[in-house]
Amino acid sequence: MISVDHLSMEFSSKPLLSDVSFVVNQRERIALVGKNGAGKSTLLRLIAGQLAPGAGTVSMPAGLAVGYLPQVMEVEDGLTVRQEAEKAFSQLRETQSRIKRLEELMAEGSGSKSDGYLRLVDEYTRLSERFRILGGQNYQAELERVLRGLGFRRGDLDRQTNEFSGGWRMRVELAKLLLGKPDVLLLDEPTNHLDIESIQWLEQFLVARPAAVMLVSHDRAFLNNVCTRTMEISCGKIYDYRVPYDQFVALRKERREQQLRAYENQLKEIAETREFIERFRYKPSKAVQVQSRIKQLAKIVPIEVDEVDRSALRLKFTCSQRSGDFPLVCEDVKKVYAHTVFQNVNLTIRRGEKVAFCGRNGEGKSTLVKCIMGEIPYEGKITVGHNVQIGYFAQNQAQTLDGELTVFDTIDRVARGEIRLKIRDLLGAFMFGGEASEKKVKVLSGGERSRLAMIKLLLEPVNFLILDEPTNHLDMRSKDVLKEAIRDFDGTVLVVSHDRDFLDGMVSRVYEFADARVREHIGGIYDFVSRFSLREAALTPAQGTSPQEARKAPSQTRQSYEERKQRSRHQRRLEQTISEAETAVAEIENALKIIESKMSTQEGSMDNALYDKHASLQRQRKALEQDWAEAMEELEEMNSSQADGE
Q1: Which of 73, 146, 378, 600 is least enclosed by beta carbons within 10 angstroms?
Q2: What global pTM score does this model have?
Q3: Could you give the CA distance from residue 149 to residue 205 in angstroms, rounded to a whole number?
Q4: How far apart are the first and last CA of the chain?
């Protein structure tokens, strides 16, 4: 469909793309990858026609519809979410208006047999058929399905767009793009403002629809679930792999090893040639050979080796003194703005645990973090444990940096010990290599400041990390460095994130924020993801895809085997939840008996702390019993359905 031929582009006399050629075929889903600044976004803009290439051409058939979603987009005010999304159906709505006008004209000339009347009937028939084929009868249902799939509630659709944050307004723009059903989708970081549920819905949508897709993303799980072809931009060239991202990583490693061998052989050849030239330069009998070697040397094209992957750099958060056994306890915490954000929040985080806050955007994850940090008032009780030293990374953490310091000096002031010898390696791993380390903080972009704030936190001695969306603005290499540092951290970690691959293998518990409640899920991020399914309306594939095509989608192959395996894992997790809940309830009941015996004494009856502890334990027991009952009910239903199937 799209042919890119000998494309070249440069910025500030620096080549960005050099003689690039490739073809995008129908229904292909392509991941465009490479380090920050390699030219991924530029290539998308060139294909979309927003930039003119320095050389080469981008060719496509006449009438091919291309939809482009940039990282940053201007959005308009004055319309509701529904009205803004309806712009995707402008042609359909024009057809609908014309049909209505034709009906009025035909009613005026009812019974006429004139040529004009017959032309009206003919146009009416043709437009009505077109309207039906384009889905005009149910476009409002499709509009709602897409908006709800991207996280909007039904009540949000008639709210003004200016009532929403920038991230939510970008979702409206994404919805308009998807509803427009272009032949080719060009998406630049489409998951930046989406939560896990919306990301999964978008994966299903892109896999099911027949359009070709080329996308840029730093979400490894998203790329693996959507794309079947990976194109890397490196050193101005395109390396094309017709495999998903994870397979590409393995093949890229082999490619770099081959580059290194070729580079070393070339260096050896150059050294031998120069040695020959110097050795025989002044011998007349060798003049012809010397001149031949000089010409040969001039024709050698230097082999470029891909930038060294620093993701193997091992870093570690500095853990300070040992904290108490319970760094954080929340009891009946409630937060209300114009509405109740959350209530009855009871959670206990033990020393050394790594937990995640997950859920839809706007459900209160960052709000609870701010309550824990004492930044906003709340109802209930939050207890930070003994000797707890918190290292906090907020989404606006970059504002706390000294703008007059350079990047290097900012890190040099907090680095201690052996890490001082690796400051430049550390900066390089977070995309501050070379001259970028000498920039002043005040000239950095928002994303660059966030990365610098994360490096600074990495070096400060703490024993409890609270990280709110730490992977924003990080590429995959930087995320790998951060993930390993968190996994190796000896202290306690609470992280708010929607990045499944980043959380995978890191956290052992997930707290889900939904419907003003906070529920605990024992297990990793994919254990949590498997426990909830997408809303029925949001799960429906794009209109125009047959059930047979949807069943053939890559995400649903080997379905029966995967379902059996997933059901077995889920059953074991339910049994584990039931067992752990029973054990915990027994321990609480023993503790209650001890407290009640103390309360029965004269001295204990006057101790308010005992009554508070007794009430807290009763609340914990009630929550555990509720989890136990829900797990038992789900397990019984699962066993019953299996018996019916057999």
Answers
A1: 600
A2: 0.69
A3: 9
A4: 49
